[in-house]
Structure formats: C-alpha cells, structure tokens
Design brief:
By secondary structure, the chain is an alpha+beta fold. The chain has four helices and five strands, in the order E-H-H-E-H-E-E-E-H. The protein has helices spanning 8-13, 20-37, 60-67, 112-124; strands at 3-5, 54-57, 73-81, 84-93, 96-103. A five-stranded mixed β-sheet has the order 1-2-5-4-3. A hairpin with a 2-residue loop joins strand 4 and strand 5. It is globular and about 40 Å long. The protein starts with a strand and ends with a helix.
C-alpha cells in the first residue's frame, strides 16, 4: 500500500521499512519543500498541504492508477541512489506539483504501454 508523507513525523515512521538511501533522499526532498513552503514554522509543526503530500508507490496497481492520469504528469526523473534507482514522478495538483516515488529495484513491472509512456516522458523533459 502506498505511503503518504505529509509531515516529518510520518517520514520518521517509515524508517526501517525502506532502504536507508531512499529515506535519506526523501529527507532531503522534505527539507527542500519545508524551506520553500514553511513560512517560518518549526519543522516539527510543518505539514505539506494535502494536495502536495509525498507519495511512495509500492505496487503495480498503484503505479498503473497513477499513470492513467497521464494528462496530469509534469515530469519523470530517474534518480540513482546507493544500490537502487527510483522514479520521481511529478503530478500537477492544483497548480502545484505532488511528488511520487517508485522504487525500480522493487520489481514493480510496468505494462508495455506504461514503459513506452515513461520513456517518452523522460525523453521529453
């Protein structure tokens, strides 16, 4: 089941469920969003707006559901981390971007259409 991260507490709660390299990367992403959006709040009190939560995609079904909303896709980045590669997928959400992450080495297979679509997106942006 996908994991949604809206605050630092939720990010800390998933430590141990995912590789350390991914957690470190997500921490950096969260801190960047905090610096951009916080308006002076303490990081412990900061919450991403509901439409901007960070999402970790964990199953084929979740990935397929996400890709069915292709008209909302803004970008797809491939990020190489220690011993793993992730897809960072930006979804247009209320004129902002929601970040979604797919762990490629977790054996999530995409359909032929999704593979072609992701390849087109990666080359377009």
């Amino acid at each position: 089941m996908m994991k949604k991260i809206q605050c630092l507490k939720e990010l800390n709660e998933i430590k141990g469920e995912f590789p350390d390299a991914l957690i470190e990367y997500l921490m950096n992403e969260f801190y960047s969003l905090y610096e951009y959006l916080s308006n002076g709040q303490k990081i412990e009190e900061f919450m991403l707006p509901a439409y901007q939560v960070m999402v970790i995609i964990e199953s084929q079904r979740e990935l397929n559901t996400l890709l069915k909303r292709f008209w909302e896709l803004e970008f797809v980045d491939e990020i190489s981390l220690v011993n793993m590669t992730i897809k960072r997928i930006g979804i247009n959400s209320l004129e902002d971007i929601q970040l979604n992450y797919v762990i490629k080495s977790y054996n999530i297979r995409t359909t032929k259409f999704n593979q072609i679509f992701l390849t087109i997106l990666e080359n377009k942006w």
